[in-house]
């Protein structure tokens, strides 16, 4: 029998959240049931709930930064047990057959993976995310949250953490590498901690210096305001890797000019508008322009273990179910230090 569980849902694009319920499928042989404790608010939730990326499925229950405890397992489950601390990220299934899935890069599944919310399962059922009290997922798409990271600060690692860890690893952030993180928000503050723990020299490029102290505490070596044009003159040809976490339009040429010979500018932030750049900004120093999308299941587990080993977690502000609309506005205004996390025990109407 399917399970009816409390959830926060938005009925149409941009509409305020309401308390309601969603159906979770009956526990299958390879499924686990997770009692959700916390769900992070990612800027992607806002883009989708407000239909900034195109048509979305409503009602929507966002949430792809999920942390909780497993309360039931199907008869064939071998990877998890009742009582285990578990997380769910941006997708809950993938084709498992294509070359990307076989390589452990399910985020690039050629058939298209099944998004945790605002998606459809392969049989066409809409998916509902983590702003809820329970979720059923296939055991292969649930992560193990190591002891030593509490569930509230772990939740944002399932998207913000892996979204920065994966490109930092792919582009070789480490000792001797100069890395810049553009935007000191949910993703950015994870990037600072991870790049620093990997041994890179880390610079934050923020719109202002208002979060400088936090940035330095989290591991940045340098911190500059991009509102000051002098920053772009001072840092010309400085970086091996620049990761933009900005979800709005940026001056791509200005950031490319900050790259050394063969350096890379990598987008993880997802502006709704097309971005443009001059080809000359690449050719003059054989620079690279790329993008990165979350990470695969294996790498997400590696990231969680890395965070536990290095004492890394998200810096969070915990909110109740009543505060989600307000939190969305604050994220859009860059007024978040540094991730809102919903205490899902406040979702059932009291
Ligand atoms: P966030 O908490 O809002 O952080 C974004 C930061 O960008 C802000 O804190 C702000 O930092 C900076 N910023 C905002 N508006 C700006 C503007 N107009 N010009 C320059 N900088 C600006 O959001 P997030 O949750 O980290 O997500 C960031 C983006 O990444 C979103 O577009 C989201 O959809 C996307 N995302 C992508 C992936 C992926 O896999 N590729 C995964 C998750 C999220 P300062 O105040 O320091 O300037
Ligand atoms: Zn996200
Ligand atoms: Zn696949």
UniProtKB/TrEMBL annotation:
<dbReference type="InterPro" id="IPR036291">
    <property type="entry name" value="NAD(P)-bd_dom_sf"/>
</dbReference>
<dbReference type="InterPro" id="IPR047109">
    <property type="entry name" value="CAD-like"/>
</dbReference>
<dbReference type="Pfam" id="PF00107">
    <property type="entry name" value="ADH_zinc_N"/>
</dbReference>
<dbReference type="InterPro" id="IPR011032">
    <property type="entry name" value="GroES-like_sf"/>
</dbReference>
<feature type="domain" description="Enoyl reductase (ER)">
    <location>
        <begin position="14"/>
        <end position="342"/>
    </location>
</feature>
<keyword id="KW-0479">Metal-binding</keyword>
<protein>
    <recommendedName>
        <fullName>alcohol dehydrogenase (NADP(+))</fullName>
        <ecNumber>1.1.1.2</ecNumber>
    </recommendedName>
</protein>
<dbReference type="InterPro" id="IPR013149">
    <property type="entry name" value="ADH-like_C"/>
</dbReference>
<dbReference type="Pfam" id="PF08240">
    <property type="entry name" value="ADH_N"/>
</dbReference>
<dbReference type="GO" id="GO:0008270">
    <property type="term" value="F:zinc ion binding"/>
</dbReference>
<dbReference type="GO" id="GO:0008106">
    <property type="term" value="F:alcohol dehydrogenase (NADP+) activity"/>
</dbReference>
<dbReference type="InterPro" id="IPR002328">
    <property type="entry name" value="ADH_Zn_CS"/>
</dbReference>
<keyword id="KW-0560">Oxidoreductase</keyword>
<keyword id="KW-0862">Zinc</keyword>
<comment type="similarity">
    <text>Belongs to the zinc-containing alcohol dehydrogenase family.</text>
</comment>
<dbReference type="InterPro" id="IPR013154">
    <property type="entry name" value="ADH-like_N"/>
</dbReference>
<dbReference type="InterPro" id="IPR020843">
    <property type="entry name" value="ER"/>
</dbReference>
